[in-house]
Specification:
alpha+beta; Copper Amine Oxidase, Chain A, domain 1; 8 helices; 29% strand
Length: 258
Amino acid sequence: MKRAIFCGLLAALALSVPARAERSVRVQVDGQLLPETARLEQGTTYFSLRSLLDAMGGWTLVWDNGAAVATGEDGVLTVHPGTDTLTYNGTTVSGNVYVEDGRTYVPLRTTVQLLGGDAQWDPYLDGAAVTTAEAEHDAADLYWLSRIISAESRGEPMEGQIAVGNVVLNRVASKTFPDTIPTVVFDRQYAVQFEPVSNGTVYDPPAASSVEAARRVLNGEKTVEGALYFYAPALSPGTWIVSNRTYLTTIGCHRFFL
């Protein structure tokens, strides 16, 4: 979707987290980690207006009489740094906006929510996960599902990568495991559940095929109905799984169990 922005100052989205000293934090938008960091100041996350709009796509930023005016298919956004307000399609909200070294910083959550999206603090990213209004999936879900699929099954056939994603979602649906994708991936109730969490490869950029697999899984595609466990015989004996769970199938290098 294209939007034209007449860059004054956009107000910033407020991302509420425990107050702490100013520090840099990461931001991802719709599953894509951005190269520029945000600033966490007194519990609010501030991000460059231009960087935010570039990540959301289709924006042109210009100054117009000391205010930022964004015009697009969905309406008009006006940011007034002097009054610390943002107005979008007739709705006005307050938010601290400031300019530093020629860059305009806005509170992240306030801005994203005004534009119809959402921004949440992700403790596993130690930063903000932004889901735009046009996104098909929650940003944190796509981000971590694509990464655990990639870390566990990079190089496997698509059927196998989807199967790994199925295990994660099957656990989310099970009463035995946590009820969100990020908490399932980082579950430590009975020790670390996924080796990539221990060795750090879950933080690596995902393969393009794994992002595709994650999207397909989130859209409901399944290759291992009901599977809750898997292991790779070449890397692990899978002793507990073999002794306690029911074998389902083998896909690529992985064996899957109910």
